[in-house]
Please model this.
Amino acid sequence: MFRVREFLGGIVLVFLLGLGGFFYRAAVEKPYTGNAVCILSAKICPDGTVVGLKNAVSCTFAPCPFPNISLASAGISFALPAGYVAATSSSYRPPVVALYRLRASSASTTASLVIRDYTYSSGESPYAVIRAHLPLALSGTAAFLTATTTIGKYSFQNVPPHTSPAGTETTYYFIRSQDILRFDAIDGSSSQGLPAAHALRSLLETLSSKE
Model:
């Protein structure tokens, strides 16, 4: 009886060793590549447009069509309000990451949207950074007022509309862990109804941040 058990135990041992060798060889000859199939089949763009999956392995999607804008350097995307186009100006340099102007039918209407990106260290207060980078018309003032405003998915620090040499400015600050995005709407003195201010709120409603 003892030898029968010993014999059966030997068979089981040999089987387990063989099975282990099989899986070891399979792992060596065909190692796991680490690739996984993307579980998403589509992506919703900031303006609500849906784009399909382009590569299931890398989980990349077809680019969102205009008016969707992606600013990789700032890690944000949004839908650009109707009538606005990208612009350049020597007056707007880094930390400006984007400038848009209203392509208006009337030459008397001037409206611009400006996006700036200010980085700060872990030891700095974001509110001190905001104070150091106030709009030109408010810089140097002893005090300024900001109100927390929620637009779309995020909360912003809003500086009330103020007058500058360029016209009427409306400013929002978006505080993140390592930087602060500043969004300015500038309505020229001849603009009626503050079109840039309304356009900026529309932009912020569609804002998406990687952080």
